């Protein structure tokens, strides 16, 4: 089985794990404990990935979580979470000045039950300042349209700081938006690209968050014109090279993304109309850790698409069908939004109230080998609606690219143990390659060669035993930059860049 090294290999990559960013290591769900009338099994759920086995615990939550986002510090300490109306800190208390987010008539009408924008709020670390954070949120006006894109800035001076909002409801851009808000790290390893589609359009707004703030950099008109009010999800692949969004009315739309320029290209469409139960069927998306498989939930079905296939639409396989379980006899536990977790598994939340999460245990594996377990996680309290909206954090610079200007190397690259003094490195050729890669060792070598994505995910492995040469077949991999881990006779590791061209 292929393994996600940043999550599973505790011995060989302990140094890399120590340097891993843990901003997404805590998730929160729930209804307020004081809901009226009082119901059993209400309250908050904290799902923590700070241990090898995720820990689930109950807490006293003060508000409803519909639209939601969560932020932990780089070491995995919970800092704050928000429902699009208020911001609560790690002690589950209101952050100083943390009320009146998205203040307006919709705030006043709906915030007793959460702001009505399921993927309309997103927290990001502020580039270049480890004490500040950015809360991005879409504002809904009295006509129930998203007409403003806003940001709120927070400050936490330490893990024990109660925090404060220092700027609130600042206008980034006015227009007409959906609530499919997501982000991916810039190729320089520090800044963030933020994607927000326009409503009833084929246009996508691209923003850049850097140390000076967030601003609109460009718009991209690509693909098909979207219709209706999507109840779905948008997501970037873990390596940042793909962007996808889905809704019942508009199907699955997949794009290539350039982390240097922020440009989208190569639009592909997968029709899901035959699987929709009704026009507003909740839908969700996620990518496997190795960036190969795209998972889509549509109504009662969970599909897997192979994005490396020549015909992606034709590659789809049904990997789960909702088993019909109704919680309390009335609440469907079918499929809605997804989230790739720090442990390399994909978690899926049912639509509406539920005390369960579904899990894709081995998302790097094709077909039924991905192992979908329905209701794999039992929560101590009911969740209200949707997944916390968070980006993938363990994505760093793109070594060797024109945008690799800040010297921010990912921990996997930066902490590799070098070969011993006086040893000669392995020779790789041809590099760039289109299919075969030859690796010549300076002496007879025994061990495992591992090909990794830039985000640190193992894609291929080869065993050698007292060999002076290895021939690696790379035919099925898409063009791009990869890392090859090579063992040495001294028991150390070398890391080489590999470029595949098509």
Distinctive features:
502 residues, 4-stranded antiparallel beta sheet, mainly beta, disordered N terminus, 33 strands
Provide a short characterization of the protein structure.
By secondary structure, the protein is mainly β.
Explain what you see.
The protein is 4% helix and 44% strand. It has four helices and 33 strands. Strands 29, 30, 31, 32 and 33 form a five-stranded antiparallel β-sheet that branches. A four-stranded antiparallel β-sheet has the order 7-8-9-10, with no helix packed on it. A four-stranded antiparallel β-sheet has the order 11-12-13-14, with no helix packed on it. A hairpin with a 3-residue loop joins strand 23 (326-327) and strand 24. The protein is mainly β and 502 residues long.
State the end-to-end distance: 27 Å
Strand content: 35-45%
Largest sheet: 5 strands, antiparallel
Low-confidence parts lasting 5 or more residues at pLDDT below 50?
A: 1-19, 414-422
User: Total number of β-strand segments?
Assistant: 33
Shape annotation:
globular
Structural class: mainly beta
Total helices: the number is 4
* Rg calc: 23 Å
Helix content: under 10%
Overall pLDDT score? 87
Could you outline the blueprint of secondary structure elements for this entry?
Layout: H1 5-8, H2 14-18, E1 26-31, E2 43-48, E3 55-59, E4 69-72, E5 78-82, E6 87-89, H3 105-110, E7 121-125, E8 132-140, E9 146-155, E10 164-177, E11 182-185, E12 192-197, E13 203-210, E14 213-221, E15 233-236, E16 242-247, E17 251-257, E18 264-270, E19 283-287, E20 293-298, E21 301-306, E22 317-321, E23 326-327, E24 331-332, E25 338-340, E26 346-348, E27 354-360, E28 372-383, H4 411-414, E29 427-429, E30 436-452, E31 458-473, E32 480-487, E33 493-500
Antiparallel strand pairs: 1-2, 2-3, 4-5, 5-6, 7-8, 8-9, 9-10, 11-12, 12-13, 13-14, 15-16, 16-17, 17-18, 19-20, 20-21, 21-22, 23-24, 25-26, 26-27, 27-28, 29-30, 30-31, 30-32, 32-33
